[in-house]
Amino acid sequence: TLLVLALVGVAVFLIVQRFTDKESALGIMAVNAMQIADNPVDESSYYDDFLSDNGIDIKKNKVEVSSGLGANTNENDSASVQSIQMIENRFMTQSVDVFFADYDFFYSLGEFDYMADIRDYLPDEILDRYKDDIVTVKSVETGKEYPIGIKLEDNAWIDETGWYPDSCVVGLAEGLKNSDLAVEFIEKILEE
């Protein structure tokens, strides 16, 4: 009887999860973000209007937000090494579309080709408007030099999130799944 109860419990769990779980329409990761209790931008529902405005069914889709990881570029910090491994894992599994971080950490990921060349995605008007804020990196693996992000200072959306008190960099993950929606999101935060 205990085995039967366990099997029924697992079956019910799988059925409930199957019919209530939403697909990820967009993955946002913010590393080294300030943690604020009950911050609405950390919740998927905060992005429902954005999804709806872009024709995405919010009953079936959500924005996955990961803003709780912190890491620095010091390779002797074992806690950071573990966090970096978790962050890299999210990139390798294509769970990240839009990425925010402080300049140093953002740059370090870019050096190892985790960030996309933003010229392949962002419109020329944005690249021209933010030309003085473009973050360029030289790949350790290929030697290629390319732009990977835009430094945000005095940005209304970043101020609203409370994630970064001074500035941060935003970019797109290499291998992102939903490039159109990711670009729409970046355009939205740049407009504010």
Write the layout of secondary structure elements.
Blueprint: H1 2-20, E1 23-30, H2 48-53, E2 61-66, H3 78-92, E3 98-101, H4 103-111, H5 124-129, E4 134-138, E5 145-153, H6 156-161, E6 167-172, H7 179-191
Parallel strand pairs: 1-2, 1-3
Antiparallel strand pairs: 3-6, 4-5, 5-6
Query: Termini distance?
Result: 59 Å
Cα radius of gyration in angstroms: 18 Å
Which strand order does the major sheet show?
Answer: 2-1-3-6-5-4
- SSE topology string: HEHEHEHHEEHEH
Biggest sheet architecture = 6 strands, mixed
Shape: globular
> Which regions are unreliable across 5 or more consecutive residues at pLDDT < 50?
13-20
Strand content: 15-25%
The overall strand count is 6
Mean pLDDT across the residues is 88
Helical proportion, percent range: 25-40%
Helix count equals: 7
What is the structural class? alpha/beta
Short description:
The chain is α/β, with parallel strands linked by helices and 192 residues long. The protein is 39% helix and 20% strand.
Describe this structure in words.
There is one protein chain. By secondary structure, this protein is an alpha/beta fold. Helices cover 39% and strands 20% of the residues. About 4% of the residues have low confidence. The chain is globular. The chain contains seven helices and six strands, in the order H-E-H-E-H-E-H-H-E-E-H-E-H. Strands 2-1-3-6-5-4 form a six-stranded mixed beta sheet.
